[in-house]
Amino acid sequence: MGVGGDSLRRVPDVPKISAADVSKVATLARLCLTDDELTTATAELSAMLDHFADIDALDLDGVEPMMQPTPLANVMREDVEGETLDRDEVLGQAPLVEDGRFRVPPILGIQE
Amino acid sequence: MSITYVNDDGYYPSNEEHPRWEHEGYELVVGLEVHVELATRTKLFSSAPNRFGDEPNTNIDPVTLGLPGALPVLNRQAVELAIRLGLALNCTVQKSTFARKNYFYPDMPKAYQISQYDEPINIDGWLDLPDGFRVGVERGHLEEDTGKSTHVGGAGGRIHGSDYSLIDFNRAGVPLVEIVSRPDIRHPEQAKAYVTELRGILVAVGASDAKMEEGSMRVDANVSVRKPGADFNTRCEIKNVNSVRSLGRAIEYEARRQVLLHEAGEPVTQQTRHWDENDGRTHTLRSKEDADDYRYFLEPDLVVVDPGIEWIEAVRAALPVLPSARRAGLAAITGLAANSEAIMVVTDRGHDSFVVDVAKHGGDASITLKHLQQLPEAAGVPAEDVAKLTTMEASGGLTATQAKQVLADMVDAGGGDAEAIATDKGFEAMGNTELESMVDAAIAAQPDAWEKFCAGEGKAMGALVGAIMKASKGQADGKAVTALLNAKKS
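^ Those are the sequences you sent over. The predicted structure of the assembly is below.
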């Protein structure tokens, strides 16, 4: 993200994001934050959002949202088989392996 | 992919004439999400092979495994197949983007799935069921498949209580199209017909082999019930449905479960439920509150896909004739309803073109259709041989039973002359005089049945026909017998 250093250091008057929001995002990202880290992260994320508030203040009516920083479209490859990795080499780096597959702890909860 | 519907504005007025599931004054509302693996040689974002049934973890590369620095490059053929499918479902094909769907699961090493979110490639289509019921198609978007988990230990390989899981990444990155229907379906049979018809289309356009048993076509059902005319109620998503038949059973079970809850004044909780084929029920799994907070954002490693009018029209021009049009073609030359069983079965087997060929050789289309339904192998016999056979049968030169035996011989021999085979088998066309005397004898032997038949009791005909068939040792033509009886009555 192109967030400038000045913006990051600017302390917002009213926090744009609550500690509870940050805590939720951290949980979703499987991050364990201490109380101190949570306070710091909340302040820093608020500063970032503050920076975007500057953009919100601009009159952007009639400006197409920019989805990508480059004007490229349709970058594609042909449907042709390429090289694959050596299975033994890959599995050799896994902590646990069984029957040519990665062995992982039991999966519970989140379904897909 | 879940979409929240506020109302059913998209529901087609002509659907009103079709039967609806009803229980205790509630009606059923179903939307289907179908995941289809595309028949490409390689994966959606890398050149690793897309092949079912290979040794585990052999079709893997850095992109498949989400190794640091690996970058996705879109497979052109996957886009082409997605467009083909979208056009076959009457969708608008549009400029689209890819997004990251963020969640943690061991079968997805990047910790996000690349999918399409607010700008899918196909939107706003529909699919007509064979009986004319129209189901709206909300979207058909591209995304990558996940790896395959096998749960070890616990109760029979179920996810619950397993000791550990084994992951095979061969399937990770395989191109999928997810087809999301509108919540237009009002009967379990319509859900089954939708999936069956969709499978037929997928196979016809070559987008997928669409095998539910191999998982190349996976169906999730969003089910709710409501009083007719009321707003939509909370729905549950049913997963783990592995056949068309199970889909009907799972929807029926789930709808009844929800009616019970509503009638008891208990809330239906929005949740994912797994269908268990063994006990015929849906079950909930413990799900975390934030599980569906996917924090979608635009995939920065991929650019916009803008197929453009030329590509889209080239794909449209190359589309094959779809099953619905092929059934209509058979209906036109046989006089049967397009959704009659014979036409459905023969078209599904891809033998409709054979019937057309036989008709072109002067054969009888409806007789050909009837034989093909019972003996699919007959499609391997030269069309002109079958044409001659059906002409003989149509003119009464062979009975249906005799024709069947001649056709079986043709299948064994890879063809042959119907007349020669019939003569060889001693099948002499039964003369009308001979048949008429048998009819007269039957009437004389059963005057009561004849009287009842003349009085309009259709059942009485059975006794007469039975006697005639017996007298002719099954060689009489049923149609000719019926015609004679009716002629004598008037």
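Chain B touches chain A through 65 residues (CB under 8 Å). The mean pLDDT of chain B is 90.

Shout if you want it in another format.
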